[in-house]
Write a structure and sequence with these properties.
This protein has three helices and 22 strands. By secondary structure, the protein is α+β, with helices and mostly antiparallel strands.
Length: 380
């Protein structure tokens, strides 16, 4: 009985050992670190690169190409003949307000001017009689002096009345608003009969000149010193087949936008464009230029955390190099240290590549499907 029990214990142990050995053998066959990885390379070159400042912006009317009509005082709209989208020409009526008080004030000042003019005429007639009587020895010199003072006072009264009339007429003229340039009604906020306030928060009508629009870009504060007046820029098109639109920097940033870490930069279009006001856009602004520097394709850069690296093809081995980079124009990147001109960098196939990995130059292989047994190193 003892021998039988011993044999029963040994046989399962041997079976387990054989199974474990078989499993270990299969795992070793799956690991293959010597298979060369197909990569594509490109040489590091000496060249010139220009920095690019990336920014977001809004299409806005240029200064003087935007007219927002606001009531001169709380009043009622009498007439507003234009609707949103209508074209207007300089001098066309936009809005007429009902302001009875201003009309009455003009009439009152006109009457005051007439009264002072009559008083001036009387003063001048009295002055003439006093001089004639003085010349004949009938009147005293004091009478002539008083007549002269009366004329002077009357002339001052006429001047004051005319100034008051001009001010009243100016107020009355604000009851009628006309277009100051050729443009389009961007938006109509009210209709005839509406009562409006004399506040920027209660506009009546907005007219813009679509031929005079620009971009106001929000440039990151750190990039503000790199932007110069006259620098070239480009509108980043959402559609690949859209023609490129060139821009030009009109203003240098001088103040920070409140509550942001950006500064506004105005850019002009190089040609007329059909872009609605208020459209958000992406712009690239050309900045400083570096000459005779080492350049590699931007696709060669590998970023791991805060470290920047690239792989250099040395024969049949990939050598990982930590690099310091400078300007980036989206196509090429300036290398400050880590790679020399003439060395070949890997631009395709370097993802997940370990240092000193075996490589072969050629077309990069497509990723194998998880259903493909070869992707896991399993026998076909």
């Amino acid at each position: 009985m003892t021998l039988a029990k011993h044999r029963c214990r040994v046989i399962p142990l041997l079976v387990c050992l054989l199974a474990f050995s078989a499993c270990r053998g299969e795992t070793e066959e799956e690991v293959d670190s010597t298979t060369p990885v197909a990569v594509k390379t490109a040489p590091a070159t000496l060249g010139t690169i220009r920095g690019i400042v990336h920014a977001t912006g809004i299409v806005d009317p240029a200064p003087g190409a935007d007219l927002v009509v606001i009531a001169p005082e709380a009043t009622r709209i009498a007439e507003i003949p234009r609707a949103s989208g209508d074209r207007v020409r300089q001098g066309d009526l936009l809005v007429r307000f009902e302001i009875p008080s201003s009309t009455a004030e003009v009439q009152r000042q006109q009457a005051e001017v007439a009264r002072t003019m009559a008083a001036l005429d009387n003063a001048k007639a009295t002055q003439t009689r006093a001089r004639e009587l003085f010349d004949r020895g009938v009147a005293a010199r004091r009478d002539v002096e008083e007549a002269n003072r009366s004329v002077t006072d009357a002339e001052a009264a006429v001047t004051e009345a005319r100034a008051s009339l001009g001010a009243a007429q100016t107020v009355e003229s604000r009851a009628v608003v006309r277009a100051t340039f050729n443009g389009i009604v961007a938006r109509r906020y009210h209709n005839p009969g509406d009562v409006v306030e004399a506040s920027a928060s209660d506009p009546v009508l907005r007219v813009i000149d679509p031929a005079r629009i620009e971009i106001v870009a929000s440039v990151p504060l750190a990039d503000a010193p790199r932007v110069e007046v006259g620098a070239a820029g480009h509108l980043v098109n959402a559609s690949a087949d859209a023609p490129e639109i060139d821009l030009k920097v009109l203003s240098r940033p001088v103040a920070v936008d409140a509550g942001t870490a950006t500064v506004p930069v105005r850019l002009a279009f190089s040609r007329p464009v059909n872009i609605p006001v208020g459209t958000p856009v992406q712009v690239d602004i050309e900045s400083e230029q570096h000459v005779d520097v080492v350049l590699i394709p931007a696709a060669a850069i590998v970023r791991e955390g805060e470290e920047t690296a690239a792989f250099v093809a040395r024969g049949e081995t990939a050598e990982r190099r930590a690099v310091r980079i400078g300007l980036n124009d989206g196509t090429n990147i300036e290398i400050l240290s880590g790679i020399k001109a003439g060395e070949k960098v890997i631009v395709d196939g370097q993802a997940g590549l370990p240092d000193k990995a075996a490589i072969t130059e050629g077309p990069a292989e497509k990723e194998s499907s998880p259903a493909d047994p070869s992707a896991k190193g399993e026998p076909k």
